[in-house]
Amino acid sequence: MAKEIPDLVAQERAGTGKGAARAARRAGMVPGVVYGGDVDPLAIQIPFNELLKKLKAGQFKSTLWNLKVEGQDDVRVICRDVQRDVVKDLPTHFDLMRLRRTSKINLYIPVEFINEEAAPGIKKGGVLTVVRSEVELIVTAGDIPEKLVVDLTGKDIGDVIHISDVDLPAGAKPTIERDFVVANLAAPSGLAAAADDEAEGEEAAAEA
Questions:
Q1: What is the DSSP string of 52-65?
Q2: Segments forming the whole domain that contains residue 11
Q3: Where in this chain does the entry annotate a coiled-coil region (predicted)?
Q4: CA dist., res. 105 & res. 138, Å (int)
Q5: Do residues 139 and 104 lie in contact, with contact meaning Cβ atoms separated by under 8 Å?
Q6: pTM (2 decimals)?
Q7: Residue 78 vs residues 23, 24, 65, 72, 159: alpha-carbon distances, Å
Q8: CA angle, 123 as apex, 119 and 129 as ends, to 5°?
Q9: pLDDT of residue 142
């Protein structure tokens, strides 16, 4: 299932250059530009509060957006830069790049764990430790997965889930080349402590 692409609503901005950008900021807007895709750059602006809200939500620069500008065709874009005020750290300008459906991009995809009730380790009181709740993948812009699914059926205490154990969408691959850990099934803290005490006792007996 493809990931739903969120809308980014902007307005076309009259004029370019520093004067027009300053006028946009005075009007409570953040000026920006859309480039790429074999089309002329388009000057746009977004209400300051709307852009700030999206920036605070996180992953603005790693999200694929459906840009909606009145009078223009919708286009898929990704943010390439957000310039900020050096003192206030607030956005002053942004750059968006148009993407084709076949373009390859890096995006963070959330990980969902299913069938916990079918994991013997969890039935024993084991704890699922999630190392990565999302994974950065190189994906095709036209085929973005909504999530990665990890099936915990049969997983027992001590089992480790690597990225190689996760079914990835066709054409997608992690940005990290090594076989990193996504999650593991750890023993309950009390059980782990008891096991450590037992091991220490055995070592002491052996030394004696």
A1: HHHHHHS-GGGSEE
A2: 7-99
A3: none
A4: 5
A5: yes
A6: 0.66
A7: 25, 22, 6, 17, 37
A8: 65
A9: 78
Separation of alpha carbons 60 and 84, rounded Å: 14
Is 3 in contact with 109 (CB distance < 8 Å)? yes
In sign, the C-alpha dihedral spanning 97, 99, 105, 111 is: positive
Has residue 132 been placed in a domain? yes
Angle (CA) 164-165-169 rounded to 5° is: 75
Cα distance between residue 187 and residue 172, in whole Å: 33
Residue-by-residue pLDDT tens, the chain, 208 positions: 456 789 999 999 987 778 888 888 999 999 999 998 888 999 999 999 999 999 999 888 878 899 999 989 899 999 989 999 989 899 999 999 998 888 888 888 899 999 999 999 999 999 999 999 999 999 988 788 888 999 999 999 999 999 999 999 888 999 999 999 999 999 887 554 444 444 454 444 444 4
The structural domain count of the chain equals 2
CB contact at 8 A, 64 and 78: yes
CATH number at residue 138: 2.170.120.20
